[in-house]
Amino acid sequence: MKQSLRFKLSVTLLATVLTTLLVTVLASNLFLEQYYSYGKRNTLVSAFHQINTIYQNTPVTDNNVAAVPGWEPFGSDSINSLKSIVNGELAMERLSQKNNIAIMVYKIEGKTEINDTTLYDLGVVFSTMGNTSTSDSTSEGFNIYKDYVRSADRESFRTDSKDYSIQQVYVSRLDSSYIYLNGMLDNGYYVMLRTSLQSIEDGAAISNQFYIYVTIGISCISFIFMLFISKKFTSQILDLAHIAKKMSELDFDTKYPVTTEDEIGVLGQSINTLSETLETTLRELKNANAQLKKDLDEKIQIDEMRKEFLSNVSHELKTPIALIQGYAEGLQENISDDQESREFYCDVIMDEAAKMNGIVKKLLDLNQIEFGADTLNIEHFDIVDTVSNMVDSSDILFRQKEVTLKFESEDSIYVWGDVYLIEESFSNYLSNALNHVDGEKIIRVKVEKQGDKARVSVFNTGERIPEEDIDNIWIKFYKVDKARTREYGGSGVGLSIVKATMERLGQKYGVENHEDGVEFWFELDASENREI
Question: How many other CB atoms sit within 10 Å of the CB of residue 468?
């Protein structure tokens, strides 16, 4: 394997470590000195506030000697004042040593500006740089002050206080840069604080060098360590690859042992799930093939039924055509001269033509519904009003067969659907009920709302449908009682039209046997709003 996953993981880790080193060194060179300077300024400000607090609690004189009103040598008050002074100076020394800063507290007699001549007017109260005597102007205690006054290269920093100012000063005598804080204490004395910036340059160089050495060492160790660690992961991946190869050979018995919840564990679980899914899918495919064979058998059966239907249709059409032809020839040859006979011949011709037209129309309607030849015309209409009108128009048929009609419904129920197709479906249910009504000869039509659905049902008393024929009556050309169907001229298409219509509208339909008859029903969408 030219570039294994182990090698890629190790190189990626090494590149990450080296990139981290580069960014760290670059950030150190660019920002460490500024950050160090910022920290030093905060240190000087903190020291200024601490010195101010010390001098608020320590009474001092110009000669740095306790000055307490009524002081007498070896008196108790003088001893307490002396202790206060000693403690204050000790606190100042500790502050200087802890923060590596030089401190000078002084006062200026009659001066408002600081310059070279001010040096001789200083009254040094405290200094961490040697002798603080005011009589020796060359004392080490004045170096912090002289270096500041005699340096012209200064850079001021913005501060939020009026009590002090902060500057970065280059001291030519020492060839180094310092940060100075000049301020005035609450007791009227001045304070000057100084700290060096030279150490940051040396510290940054040492830090960068240390980073480089450490990172190189860590990178080498990490690279070797990663080669060993990655072997564990790559071996698991190879195991998964082996299982995948088995699956490609349709062997789903091998499963990956999932022992962790990391990415490898998730992948292993996914492989196991995929294996089970493929195995199930193949099993379902076999079942689907068996079902396909069954469907083919059913198709053959339907073809046989179609042939039977065509035979029945041919028989049904043959008689009307023969009657039409015979009576038409009789009219043509003037077999009967009286007007009543000619009108009878014409009535027979019209009746038989209407019967043939009905058969053809049903076949055309079924074909258009099944194959979607016509676009649905969805409307919002009152199904109660529609059904009521169709029932009223069939009143003469009920009377002819001496049928008792019972119509049950609410005042109005608005539904969504194609009015023409729904009327056709209801008409087929009603015709079916009229053709099969028997016994008490009762037909009950019911329209009721159930939630967001409207249920339309047609019940007729008479013989029940055999259970083995319940699922088949919706198949086109299927007839339960062929003799009776031929008797009333049925084609076996009406219920198929209902099935095709409801499936196209996406609604439910069905049939239920009752003790005294059969009930056919279908549902319609009765929701208030609908996107058309």
Answer: 8
The pLDDT assigned to 137 comes to 39
DSSP symbol at 119: G
d(CA 420, CA 504): 13
Question: Which tens digits make up the pLDDT trace of 89-114?
Answer: 888 888 988 888 999 888 876 655 55
Angle between helices 263-332 and 198-248 (to 10 degrees): 50
- Amino acid letter for position 184: M
Q: How does pLDDT run across 344-359, given as a tens digit for each residue?
A: 778 777 877 776 776 6
Nearest to 452 by CA among 496, 490, 416: 416
C-alpha atoms less than 13 angstroms from C-alpha of 423 in its C-beta half-sphere: 14
SS (H, E, C) 349-379: HHHHHHHHHHHHHHHHHHHHHHHCCCCCCEE
Q: What percent of the chain has pLDDT over 70?
A: 75
Sequence length of the chain is 532
| CA trace torsion 213, 218, 219, 223 (10° rounding) | 150
CA 173 to chain CA mean position, Å? 69
Contact 419, 386 (CB under 8 A): yes
Which segments within 51-116 are labelled E, that is strand? 102-108
How much is the pTM? 0.40
Helix (H, G, I), strand (E, B) or coil at 186: coil
State the Cα–Cα distance between residues 191 and 453, nearest whole angstrom. 93
CA angle 440, 446, 452 (to 5 degrees): 155
Q: State the DSSP string of 198-241.
A: HHHHHHHHHHHHHHHHHHHHHHHHHHHHHHHHHHHHHHHHHHHH
Within 8 A by CB and 6+ apart from 300, the residues are none
β partners of residue 416: 380, 525
432, 495 contact by CB (below 8 A): yes
pLDDT digits (tens, 9 = 90+) for 482-492: 544 445 455 56
d(CA 169, CA 151): 7
Instruction: Report the C-alpha gap between 203 and 305 in whole angstroms.
Output: 100
pLDDT digits (tens, 9 = 90+) for 428-467: 899 889 988 988 999 999 999 988 899 999 999 998 888 8
Average pLDDT of the residues of the chain: 77
How distant, in Å, are the alpha carbons of 29, 30, 37, 38, 204 from that of 200? Answer: 11, 12, 9, 12, 6
Which amino acid, one-letter code, is at 523? Answer: E
Q: Is 213 exposed, middle or buried (0-12, 13-18, 19+ CB in 10 A)?
A: exposed
The larger pLDDT score, comparing residue 91 to residue 257, is at: 91
